[in-house]
């Protein structure tokens, strides 16, 4: 089945930009979605269909998808953005929902 | 407001069974496909199963196929997960989630419940 790879951790200073990647073979052909999960809480969808934001999600969260890498970008990072982030997509060859392994964002 | 409330978790012995429920409100339940996702302690998210809006079609992860059964009762706005022949590795928080759109291609999971903990141990 389709494999996606995320970096285990990303660290960024407050006010800077965080970039979290999700790599997979020709991932640009798939719709990629991103979920934020804070400790002890359920996941929350923050970006869907590569680059759209659900209502209530700050404009600081954006996404892109090109080639073999989908990217979640968080601008002007705040302490409250510290969380685990998961990419999610649909694998048509296996009929499975696929999650990346997750990236822990640390705000220094 | 969309709400998903899971219940039915608990401690069960290896080889035992458990049925999880997810009560939905705040949207037209019968118009959406639904999914179960689990998270083992300290681990990442793992998709478990999905069911179409009318319950006519289902998908399962390889790790649970043949042991778990997803179902729904649209008259009760409730999603279920029947788990049989449970193993220690099934220990996890189980979340129900709404599928935003699609079935032959599943798109984003746009709302999640708070989860229910299943512990498989003797």
Please tell me about this protein's structure.
The complex is a heterodimer of chains A (108) and B (122). The termini of chain A are far apart. Chain A has no helices and nine strands. In chain A, strands 1, 3, 4, 7, 8 and 9 form a six-stranded mixed sheet that branches. A three-stranded antiparallel sheet of chain A has the order 2-6-5, with no helix packed on it. Chain A is mostly beta strands. Chain A has strands spanning 9-12, 18-23, 33-37, 44-47, 61-66, 69-74, 83-91, 96-99, 103-107. Chain B has no helices and eleven strands. Chain B has strands at 3-7, 10-12, 18-25, 34-39, 45-51, 58-60, 68-73, 78-83, 92-99, 109-112, 116-120. In chain B, a hairpin with a 4-residue loop joins strand 7 (68-73) and strand 8. The radius of gyration of chain B is 13 Å and the shape is globular. Chain B starts with a strand and ends with a strand.
What is the topological layout?
The complex is a heterodimer of chains A (108) and B (122).
Chain A: E1 9-12, E2 18-23, E3 33-37, E4 44-47, E5 61-66, E6 69-74, E7 83-91, E8 96-99, E9 103-107
Parallel strand pairs in A: 1-9
Antiparallel strand pairs in A: 2-6, 3-4, 3-7, 5-6, 7-8, 7-9
Chain B: E1 3-7, E2 10-12, E3 18-25, E4 34-39, E5 45-51, E6 58-60, E7 68-73, E8 78-83, E9 92-99, E10 109-112, E11 116-120
Parallel strand pairs in B: 2-11
Antiparallel strand pairs in B: 1-3, 3-8, 4-5, 4-9, 5-6, 7-8, 9-10, 9-11
Keywords:
heterodimer; A: 108 residues; mainly beta; 6-stranded mixed beta sheet; 3-stranded antiparallel beta sheet; 0% helix; B: 122 residues; 4-stranded antiparallel beta sheet; 50% strand; globular
Give me the strand/helix succession of chain A: EEEEEEEEE
**Portion of residues within helices of chain B:** under 10%
Helicity range of chain A: under 10%
Shape summary of chain A: globular
Average of pLDDT of chain A:
97
Q: Beta-strand percentage of chain B?
A: over 45%
Profile the largest sheet of chain A.
6 strands, mixed
**Structural class based on helices, strands and sheet pairing of chain B:** mainly beta
Radius of gyration of chain A: 13 Å
| Strand content bin of chain A | over 45%
| Number of separate strands of chain B | 11
Oligomer: heterodimer
- Profile the largest sheet of chain B: 7 strands, mixed
Query: How many helices of chain A in DSSP terms?
Result: 0
The best one-word shape of chain B is globular
Number of helices of chain B: 0
Radius of gyration of chain B over alpha carbons?
Answer: 13 Å
Considering residues with a beta carbon less than 8 A from a beta carbon on another chain, report the largest interface and each chain's count: A-B, 26 and 25 residues
**Can you tell me the residue ranges of chain B where pLDDT is under 50 for at least 5 consecutive residues?**
none
